[in-house]
């Protein structure tokens, strides 16, 4: 076989691989979803994720299937001496997969690793202060989302967030909302949306974001954490936490914001 024929054959094989890969992945995921959900995982959900049993039966089944695929595809890595167990994996996955119910999903396609610390962790970032001077900034965080395939979480905060599902604070939901946001590039508060919904999303979320900024300046009580006033990306993540954990309060406080999030996430947690 001549070198030219070999190159042509390799090109054909490469094209076939690219074209067939999505079908192979879909087939593999379907096989995973058809497996029985492990009994020990059900016990973890019962113990650590009480909101699971408030959900409609069809969403419970869907969530379990998403958990199976998520755990088959994502790698958990422990830091600071923490040992990765099924309790950690299932508890975190159950919260992350809430955000992809009822929607076509590629299971956070850019995400490869979930880094888990025992408690809140310290990060160092370089940034400019108000005078434009470059500073090395140290922060204590319970979670962080990176746009190159990693989410970092505190296990203690992740576990507490799942157990107390009524306070509007959930680090896993927050960081995985950032992952959805980052699927279109850098996080900017505008995840992938159908073209016909982009205008309403932009106008309604911008208005709600500005209202939160004004409340923060005036020191007024707010359902949404003031951290959401930092920028549109943080607003989307904070609003997502409240949408899933305090849906009836969000409906009462801002029906337009609730409706936009309900349309995006394709669920209505206010009736769970």
From TrEMBL:
Source species, domain of life: Bacteria
A Pfam entry, by short name: Peptidase_M90
InterPro entries assigned to the protein according to its UniProt record, in alphabetical order: MetalloPept_cat_dom_sf (IPR024079), MtfA_fam (IPR010384), MtfA_N (IPR042252)
Protein name: M90 family metallopeptidase
Species this protein is from: Aliikangiella maris
